[in-house]
């Protein structure tokens, strides 16, 4: 019995012992399980996925910039960076000899770049896919590629000062590349996936992809063909006249669209490492100057619009005029002149302009200047744009008014100056200039460019009269017969404004000509400025031929036929001289 | 059992009836239900086997399907990466080709090509009235001296290009009337241009406007409305391009 119990108890003891041990082990297991699954579970799981999960950025393609016909002026293409693992290159000299002609780099420098024990060095950046293919065909060990993108400008310096340029990171640094950075850049996407052996995505595992949204395409109002002629013409003239710089603006006066915006000297946005910073901006918008005689058109328009004179009204102009504490002269010394209002403009007489302007007074004149857009932004929002200066009316001194009427004492940029003539060309209605035709998003939706505003500055009748007066400027007796285009009626005005240095006018001038054609039904306005010419001086002599060349080309490109009418004859003199 | 019973009353199925009678006699003779139970167990065993087979089969089929799906997904992943490589290669090719086209069609290149063919930029803008062959604008020759070396002969490709320009020109409309300020001197000059083949060949490229602008050239809207659409042959004969 006793023995039996022992056996029984032993048996029970044993099973109890086993049970306890098993329970302990299970408790440990469960505890560990709870720890791994519940306590540290999510952390461990994310660590595990983290090891497999790969996130890559999907860079958005930068939008293109095109001309008004859709010809590309700036596009982004695939490019490659060539990298090297120096430890894998057995014979750097041989590798360098093979690659140097393709990369067109110095052999010794390239060999040095390939020698060493670094696992990753850049050999060349932004090479074309064709060149990468040639390198890949060499099958050099340790030479690898890295995909990247490159901004190219197919037409080189064509419209470069409008389009601008990008930096090494592909972001806009100048021109519209900078001004339209937000629209052009698009939104980068991301892709996350779990990768298996060999880096390929595991198909059944989690996979998220946020597609990149490509940048918008920006269509400019620029016409590539007119732009080309404008750039060639101004570059040739700047070189011939040994001038500091020059600009040309071609505008459609009815829509305010800028068809060409040329600046010389210019640069090549594909390689601007050696370009001068001053050549990379847009002088037609950033450089302001005293308009000089071209501003007399505003004065004449104001005088005619106020009804105080007509083109044949006579003015007796003395040799000098004293206003305030200042004695005013004309460009050429003369005795008493008897000129009509048209004659004053044709001969570009400062004193005659002062006398005519005094019939309307300074307050009315100031309001006309404002309506013509003087001292105000052009509305283009171009990076680096300068609005010019129009002195505030309350600060005008006794000499301010007589100075402003012939275009000194204020400053404008070439686009503002062109806009004045566009207003006269468009029957007195000023349409704000525009440079962006439309912006097309990646999804195909089209946003029109900046809305244009229309301001009535003078009456259509005034505009017509002023145009006929401007036609006398290009007559034989005017200052710019060189602007005449056979078969067409041309209206325009010369300007030869002295450049002020330290408050005094020096020898340097800005020669300009701004005009329109056909004069009786203007379709185009062209403004030309040449800054500090050393050979030649007068607007009629330097700028008028450039105007003629650009205008003829633009008339042909835009299919503007001659109107077949003849210019009215307006007497320039009156009385016994006339 | 009940089915068999029902079959009993059907006179057609005689064999079934006989079978039933036999088994019924046997049952009465031994009267041991255990044996019947065993016989009942047999079909149960068989249905278990079928069930196991079914489950096993389903499992197997599931595994095979899983394997197939995984294989096709994996091969799909290969195809995707292959196609992506192909796509990027094609994109690169397309970019290279359009780069070439852009370079070829740039104004600078076109000007150089045209000059190489012996062409010169036209001077004054001149428009040809296809209706009556009159000239708007003042034409002037390109001043090519007759002794100047002739440019190289045009290739068929060049001629096709010229033809394309011609065709583009003659399809334009133009009013048949001219404004009152029609200049006879201009017409004479045009005739002179046409008369000297050297000049005509490399001289004025006649610009032909589109209808709306041409309409404006006519003095009145009425005149423009009356404008005849020039026939292409008439246009060609009036075109002083050499």
Characteristic terms for this protein:
heterodimer, A: 578 residues, alpha+beta, Beta-lactamase, seven-stranded mixed beta sheet, five-stranded antiparallel beta sheet, B: 242 residues, mainly alpha, two-stranded antiparallel ribbon, 2 strands, 2% strand, disordered C terminus
Walkthrough of the structure:
The complex is a heterodimer of chains A (578) and B (242). Chain A is of the alpha+beta class. Chain A has 19 helices and 23 strands. In chain A, strands 2, 3, 4, 5, 10, 18 and 19 form a 7-stranded mixed beta sheet that branches. Chain A has a 5-stranded antiparallel beta sheet with strand order 12-11-23-22-21, with helices on both faces. The relative contact order of chain A is 0.11. Chain B has a domain at 120-238. Chain B contains 10 helices and 2 strands. Chain B has a two-stranded antiparallel ribbon with strand order 1-2. In chain B, helix 5 crosses helix 10 (232-238). Chain B is rod-shaped. Mean pLDDT of chain B is 62; it is low at 1-10, 12-18 and 165-242. The A-B interface holds A 71-72, 75, 77-78, 128-130, 152, 154-156, 158, 200-201, 203-204, 224-225, 228-229, 485-488, 521, 552-553, 555-556, 559-566 and B 70, 73-74, 76-78, 81, 88, 91-92, 95-96, 98-99, 102-103, 105-108, 111, 121-127, 136-138, 140, 178-183, 186, 207, 209-210, 213-214, 216-217, 219.
């Amino acid at each position: 019995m006793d023995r039996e119990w022992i056996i029984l108890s032993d048996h029970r003891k044993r099973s109890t012992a086993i049970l306890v041990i098993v329970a302990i082990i299970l408790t440990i297991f469960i505890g560990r399980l709870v720890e791994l699954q519940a306590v540290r579970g999510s952390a461990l799981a994310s660590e595990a996925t983290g090891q497999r999960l790969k996130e890559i950025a999907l860079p958005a393609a930068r939008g293109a910039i095109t001309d008004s016909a859709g010809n590309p002026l700036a596009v982004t293409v695939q490019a490659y960076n060539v990298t090297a693992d120096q430890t894998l290159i057995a014979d750097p000299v041989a590798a360098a000899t093979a690659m140097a002609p393709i990369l067109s780099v110095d052999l010794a420098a390239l060999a040095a770049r390939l020698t060493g024990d670094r696992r990753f060095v850049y050999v060349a950046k932004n090479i074309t896919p064709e060149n990468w293919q040639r390198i890949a065909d060499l099958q050099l060990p340790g030479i690898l590629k890295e995909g990247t993108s490159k901004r190219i400008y197919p037409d080189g310096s064509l419209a470069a000062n409008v389009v601008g340029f990008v930096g090494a990171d592909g972001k806009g640094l100048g021109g519209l590349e900078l001004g339209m950075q937000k629209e052009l850049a698009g939104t980068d996407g991301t892709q996350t996936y779990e990768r298996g052996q060999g880096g390929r995505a595991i198909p059944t595992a989690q996979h998220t992809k946020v597609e990149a949204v490509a940048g918008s395409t920006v269509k400019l109002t620029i016409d590539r063909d007119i732009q080309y002629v404008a750039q060639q013409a101004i570059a040739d003239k700047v070189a011939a006249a040994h001038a500091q710089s020059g600009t040309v603006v071609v505008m459609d006066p009815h829509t305010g669209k800028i068809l060409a915006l040329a600046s010389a000297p210019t640069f090549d946005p594909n390689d601007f490492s050696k370009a001068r910073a001053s050549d990379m901006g847009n002088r037609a918008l950033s450089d302001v100057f005293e308009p000089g005689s071209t501003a007399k058109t505003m004065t004449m328009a104001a005088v005619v619009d106020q009804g105080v004179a007509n083109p044949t009204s006579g003015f007796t102009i003395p040799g000098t005029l004293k206003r305030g504490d200042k004695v005013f002269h004309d460009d050429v010394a003369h005795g008493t002149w008897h000129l009509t209002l048209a004659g004053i403009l044709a001969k570009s007489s400062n004193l005659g302009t002062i006398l005519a302007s005094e019939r309307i007074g300074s307050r009315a004149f100031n309001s006309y200047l404002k309506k013509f857009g003087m001292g105000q932004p052009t509305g283009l929002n171009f990076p680096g744009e300068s609005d010019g200066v129009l002195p505030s009316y309350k600060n005008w001194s006794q000499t301010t008014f007589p100075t402003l009427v012939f275009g000194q004492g204020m400053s404008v940029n070439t686009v503002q100056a062109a806009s004045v003539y566009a207003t006269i060309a468009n029957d007195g209605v000023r349409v704000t200039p525009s440079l962006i035709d439309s912006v097309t998003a990646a999804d195909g939706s089209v946003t029109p460019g900046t809305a244009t505003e229309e301001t009535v500055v003078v009456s259509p009748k005034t505009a017509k009269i002023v145009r006929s007066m401007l036609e006398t400027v290009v007559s034989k007796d005017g200052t710019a017969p060189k602007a005449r285009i056979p078969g067409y009626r041309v209206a325009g005005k010369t300007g030869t404004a002295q450049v002020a240095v330290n408050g005094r006018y020096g020898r340097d001038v800005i020669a300009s000509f701004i005009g329109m054609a056909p004069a009786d039904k203007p379709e185009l306005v062209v403004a030309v400025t040449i800054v500090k010419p050393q050979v030649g001086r007068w607007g009629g002599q330097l700028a008028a031929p450039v105007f003629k060349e650009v205008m003829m080309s633009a008339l042909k490109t835009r299919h503007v036929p001659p109107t077949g009418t003849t210019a009215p004859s307006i007497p320039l003199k009156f009385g016994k001289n006339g | 059992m009940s089915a068999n019973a029902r079959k009993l009353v059907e006179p057609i199925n005689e064999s079934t009836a006989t079978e039933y009678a036999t088994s019924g006699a046997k049952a009465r003779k031994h009267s041991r239900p255990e044996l019947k139970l065993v016989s009942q167990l047999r079909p149960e065993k068989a249905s278990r086997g079928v069930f196991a087979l079914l489950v096993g089969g389903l499992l197997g089929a599931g595994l095979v399907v899983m394997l197939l799906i995984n294989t096709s997904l994996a091969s799909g992943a290969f195809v995707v990466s292959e196609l992506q490589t192909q796509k990027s290669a094609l994109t690169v090719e397309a970019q290279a080709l359009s780069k070439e086209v852009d370079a070829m069609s740039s104004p600078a290149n076109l000007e150089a090509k045209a000059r190489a063919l012996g062409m010169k930029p036209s001077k004054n803008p001149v428009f040809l009235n296809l209706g009556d062959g009159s000239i708007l604008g003042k034409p002037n020759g390109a001043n090519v001296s007759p002794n100047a070396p002739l440019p190289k002969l045009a290739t068929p490709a060049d001629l096709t290009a010229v033809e394309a320009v011609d065709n583009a020109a003659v399809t334009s409309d133009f009013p048949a009337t001219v404004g009152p300020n029609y200049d006879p001197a201009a017409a004479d000059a045009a005739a002179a241009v046409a008369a000297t083949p050297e000049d005509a060949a490399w001289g004025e490229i006649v610009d032909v406007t589109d209808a709306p602008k041409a309409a404006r050239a006519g003095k009145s809207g009425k005149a423009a409305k009356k404008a005849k659409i020039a026939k292409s042959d008439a246009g060609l004969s009036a075109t002083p391009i050499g």
